Amino acid sequence: MYSEPAPAKLNLALHVRGKLPDGRHRLETVFAFCTDGDLVAAEEADGLSLSSSGPFAPGLSTGEDNLVLRAAALLQKAAGTDQGATLSLQKNLPVASGIGGGSADAAAALRLLTRLWKIDPAHAAAVAPELGSDVPACLLSMSARGVGAGDELELLNDPGVSGTAVLLVNPLAPLSTGEVFAHWDGEDRGPLDDWREGRNDLESPAVGLVSEIGEVLSWLKARPGAAFVRMSGSGATCFAFFDDESTRDEAARAVPESWWHLATYLR
Ligand SMILES: C[C@](O)(CO)[C@H](O)COP(=O)(O)OP(=O)(O)OC[C@H]1O[C@@H](n2ccc(N)nc2=O)[C@H](O)[C@@H]1O
Ligand SMILES: Nc1ncnc2c1ncn2[C@@H]1O[C@H](COP(=O)(O)OP(=O)(O)OP(=O)(O)O)[C@@H](O)[C@H]1O
After folding, report:
1. CA–CA separation, 50 vs 224, rounded Å?
2. Most buried residue among 29, 45, 68, 129 by CB atoms closer than 10 A?
3. Residues lining ligand 1, CB < 6 A?
4. Which residue positions are annotated as catalytic (predicted)?
């Protein structure tokens, strides 16, 4: 049995600069990853199958539309192999929540099956962008700057935050990434230089769709020790960096019952 972590993804900043010829949006973003997330496991088998467990498994299909199986099928085809796998997914992250759960799962499946099937890792890199614009970043799961659709990457040696205590909070309202992009107002607010000074341009359209995100952001900003607060991706998950573990844990204990939270660290 092989297993592979699928770390939660954060966009430390996300600037929407316009549209690409293919209709997607042109982004400038800084990705970072957490030490916690989902977990994908696999063992050799004939054919491909998937089972799931964990708090967010109920309601998530384990059929061909699951990104884990889509990744496996694409990789099988790209590598020209007839090897199969029995896959399992421990779904700890909320679905459609801006922290790349599905993208991280797909990327973890690509890394895992590359090892299990002993195939060239170049196949995983080749199919990743087809599975979603966040999948190439999740395949690396290291801090990176993304441009283009967010899938043209440049590794960042150290955005200076590895090991930071972070709290993720989600009001448990799923948000469709496509719908949030569709509500972006079309105004280019300028380039991304320093992520700390930057923005998440999807925050405003996401709050317009789910007003509770505004409450989560205000709640996080009011926590003692919260040093940096922003929404990730297309939402609705927001995150705060804390000065230390004890202020992070104190904030985690105070999260309202109806919200999901995860106390973690940056990788
Ligand atoms: C918002 C981010 O999470 C930031 O990292 C990503 O850009 C979204 O990545 P993702 O979930 O892998 O997204 P995809 O599955 O590729 O696309 C979901 C939806 O968002 C839109 N989309 C995505 C990326 C992009 N640069 N512009 C877009 O308009 C797509 O057209 C699609 O309607
Ligand atoms: N393994 C999976 N985990 C989560 N979602 C999946 C998975 N497979 C397919 N999906 C579908 O993909 C969609 C996006 O889910 P995901 O959790 O990746 O969104 P997200 O966290 O908003 O991602 P991003 O930050 O990359 O936009 C969901 O609507 C879900 O139905």
Report:
1. 43
2. 68
3. 11, 14, 24-25, 27, 29, 103, 132-135, 149-150, 177-178, 181, 233-234
4. 9, 134
Does residue 233 line the site of ligand 2, with CB under 6 A? yes
pLDDT value at 218 more than 80: yes
Cα→Cα distances 207→172, 185, 213, 218, 232, Å: 14, 13, 6, 12, 12
Tell me: the pLDDT tens digits for 58-72? 989 999 999 999 999
CA dist 237 and 264 (Å) reads 14
> Residues 6 or more apart from 6 whose CB is under 8 A from it?
37, 38, 39, 40, 93, 101, 104, 105, 107, 108, 138
Query: Chain-centre distance of CA 45, in angstroms?
Result: 29
Q: Find out whether 63 is annotated in a ligand binding site.
A: no
CB-based contacts of 193, cutoff 8 Å, min separation 6: none
3-state secondary structure of 101: helix
CA of 69: how far to CAs of 1, 15, 98, in Å? 17, 31, 21
- What was the pLDDT predicted at 159? 66
Residue 28: is its pLDDT beyond 80? yes
Q: How many domains does the chain have?
A: 2
Count CB-CB contacts under 10 A for residue 34. Answer: 23
Output the domain CATH number for residue 202: 3.30.70.890
Q: Say if residue 13 carries a ligand binding annotation.
A: no
CA distance 191 to 174: 29
In a domain, 160, yes or no: no
